[in-house]
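This section describes the prediction task in plain terms. A model, or a person checking by hand, is given the sequence of a single protein chain and must write out its three-dimensional structure as a string of tokens. No templates, partner chains or ligands are provided. The sample shown here is typical of the held-out split.
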Amino acid sequence: MAEVLDRRLHPFREDLAASYLEGRVEASRFIEPRSFRVSAPSADLRRRPDAAAPLETQIPFGFEVHLYEDRGGWCWVQSLSDSYVGYMRRDSLEEGAAEVSHRVSARAAFLYREPDAKAEARGLLGMGSRVFVFDEEGGFGAVLAGGAGGAGGETAWIPKAQLLPASECLSDAAMVAERLMGVPYLWGGRDSCWGLDCSALIQMAFELCGVFAPRDSDLQEVGLGGACSLDLGGCRRGDLVFWEAHVGIMLDGERLLHANAHHMCVGAEDLVVAARRIMGVAGPVRAIRRV
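The expected answer:
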């Protein structure tokens, strides 16, 4: 039986594919990628090289991608953080591997022209953005802003209180998710400033805790944690509750936090109430998993 690969996670088309897939898929050409990093505050990854194409996900500042094609202002890339494949605008990228010393651990962090909270704010980075701090002054770290502030690589300053060293991890994914309370809901969104969807909330929360989480809820349902009883009364903080194409994280034994189209934001509600409402849209709870 021929191997079936998930096109979300493997870069292959009829005319072009990644070299590591040679012998596993059919394509006219197999090539080695080039390393690029996201230089915009957040880069949209779309299904086709078209601004009107569906949004698949978003990749934050400082994340690294492998580039397989650069044509007409669009690049065909694969994210190295979660293997997601899609098309991204070329002006969102800078060539070269990313140097990372810290990650933004706050919901968002301003970039300042000077190491002073009263200085001009010249950009904004969302949670999880990756930066390299090359100097420190007072309570600020100096980074290269790149496209984040539209200043072409000039120095910007971020409050150190909003940064987490890349070598460190947080320990409570539910606590990280709570920082995103009220962020607008956006299908395909993964940007703590402008909008995110249910699985992005989970991915971002666990990422800062050092736990790899796939991008989509169906992949998370298979790849995150271990299965628990479907008894809704047996949940505890940090448990993940899955429906068809939906996921949320428990804040305690009763309250579910999830990015959802009912409230159009990241919101908390009683799990039993949420399950009763979601039943009419996505059916019953499919799985409860504990990481």
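For orientation: The first strand starts at residue 17 and ends at 18.
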